[in-house]
Amino acid sequence: MPARTGKQFLQGLKGPRDIWIGADKVEDITEHPAFAGAAQGLAGVFDLQHQFADDCLMADPETGEAINVSHMIPRSKEDILRRHKGLTRIAEYTVGIMGRSPDYMNVTYAGFAGRADEWGANGNEQGAENLVNYQKFLRRNDISLTHTIIQPTIDKAQGDAPKPGNDVALHKVGETEHGIVVRGARILATLAPFADELAVYPAAPLPPGADDYALAFCIPMSTPGLKFICRDSCAGSRNLHDHPLSSRFDEQDAFVIFDDVEVPWDRLHINCNLPVYNQVMTTGWYPNVMQQTMIRAQTKLEFAWGLGTRMCEAINGLQPPAMQMLGEIWTFSEFARSCIQSAEENAHEFGNGVWFPQGAPLVALRATLPTWFPRVNEIIRLLGSHNLLAAPTEAQLADPKLRPLIDQFMRGAGDVTAEQRARVFRLAWDFVGSALASRGEQYERFYLASGARNQQLAQLLAERARADRLVDRFLNEGSDISQKKAMPVVETV
C-alpha cells in the first residue's frame, strides 16, 4: 500500500483495541469526544503528504511505491536535507504541538534499520533481520506507530532501572510455539489511541542480571492482553475559533499494561540480549531522531514568537519592554534554527553507509529546550495579561444583541476588529493557558529526559580537545614572562 490518505488512516483506527479514558472503554476512537478532534487533526498529517508530495513523498527503494520521506534511510547529506523538507511540512501543520506525530517513529525505525549491523551483534542476527523486515512493513503500509520505552517507577529510591525480581516493569515470563510471553508495564505511550501498532525498544541501559527486561518488539494495538490507560483529555470543543489548538492536537498519553501478551517470533527484535539492548541506542539514535524533534521544537518556538508579536500588535503594545521579551523568544528560535542547520551541514556517516546529522549541536539544543519553553509561555502570559481572559467565544460574537457591544468595547487598536482580537487572544490562551498548554509545558520539561539529565549527557559527550589545549597553555607554562615565546596557534577544529 502506498502512502495513506487521512480517510484511510481514520478507517484503520476503527479496529478493536483496549483503550480506557475515565470510566469509558473506548469503542470507536474516531467518534469518542476525547479523541475525535485529534483523530481528524492527525488525518490531516496523512493528507498533507499528498498535498505537498514533492517535499513529503519519495519512492520506496525496492518497490517504487510512494512512501513518506520520514521513512528514508539517509545515505548522504543530500538525503538529510531532503528529509528536512518533509519533516518541516509536518511540523508546520501541527506548529510543533504534537511531539509524537507519526514521522517521529518513522525516522526512529529508519535509523534502526540503517544500523542493523548493531542490532545483529552478540548473536542477535535474527532479531536484526526481523527489525529490517518490520521497517519495510512500516513504510509500505504507512503505519501510525507509537512507542513505550520508560520503565514505571514504584519506589524512586530503588532507582529507575528494573532489577531482577521487579514484577512491575515489562519482562519476559515464558515462551510458546508462536513467540514469547511478556508481562508488566511501560510508560508513556504518547499517541497511543491514534496508533496502529506499538513499539517497545531500549531507553536507559539495564544493570547486569536484568536480561529478562532486555526486550524490543513491535505488535498491533489490537494484540490480546494490551491495555492502555489514558490520562484525562485535554481536548477542547471541536470549534476552531474557541479552541484552535486543543480541538485537534491533543495527542494523548497512556500507561501501558502487558497482561501476558504474546509477541510473535517475527516481531521480536531483542529477546533478553542485554549487550545488544544496552548498545543500540548509544551511537546513531539521538542525532538521527533529533533532526525530527528539533525541527518540531524550532517550529513551535517560531510560532510562539509570531503569536506573541501578533498579540502585541492587536493592542498596539509593541513598547520597549514587550519588544525585549519578544526578542528573547526570537533568539531561542534562531539559536534552534542555527543548531539544526549546523548539524545537517556537518552530517557524516555513522557506519554501515548510513548518514545522520552531527550530534553535538542537537545535544546542546536538547539540553536547553526544557528551560526555554516554560520561559516562552511565561513571556506570552506576561504580554497577554488580562486580555488572555477576556476574549469572546464564537457563540457570543454570533449573538445579535451582544455583537454590537462586543464590536464597540472589545475591539483592538487601529483597524483590528473585535473578532480579530478575539481570535488572536484565544489562540494565545490555547497555547499557554489551556489544559493542552499545561500538558505541553510538562511534556517539554521532560522531553527525551529532563534538562538536568540532558546537560549531564552534554558534558559526557562533549569534545574536549580544544578546551584542554586552551587551558593547558597556561597550566604548563613557567613563571618567567620574559622567556615566553609567541602564543602557539590553537586549532579551531
TrEMBL record:
Domain HpaB/PvcC/4-BUDH C-terminal: 278-475
Record: residues binding FAD: 147-149, 190
Lineage top rank: taxon: Bacteria
Signal peptide: none
Listed InterPro entries: Acyl-CoA_Oxase/DH_mid-dom_sf, AcylCo_DH-like_C, AcylCoA_DH/oxidase_NM_dom_sf, HpaB/PvcC/4-BUDH, HpaB/PvcC/4-BUDH_C, HpaB/PvcC/4-BUDH_N
Alphabetical UniProt keywords: FAD, Flavoprotein, Oxidoreductase
Residue ranges annotated for the HpaB/PvcC/4-BUDH N-terminal domain, each copy included: 5-268
GO molecular function terms listed in the Swiss-Prot or TrEMBL record: oxidoreductase activity, acting on the CH-CH group of donors
PANTHER family: 4-HYDROXYPHENYLACETATE 3-MONOOXYGENASE-RELATED
Protein's UniProt name: 4-hydroxyphenylacetate 3-hydroxylase
Gene source species: Parvibaculum sedimenti
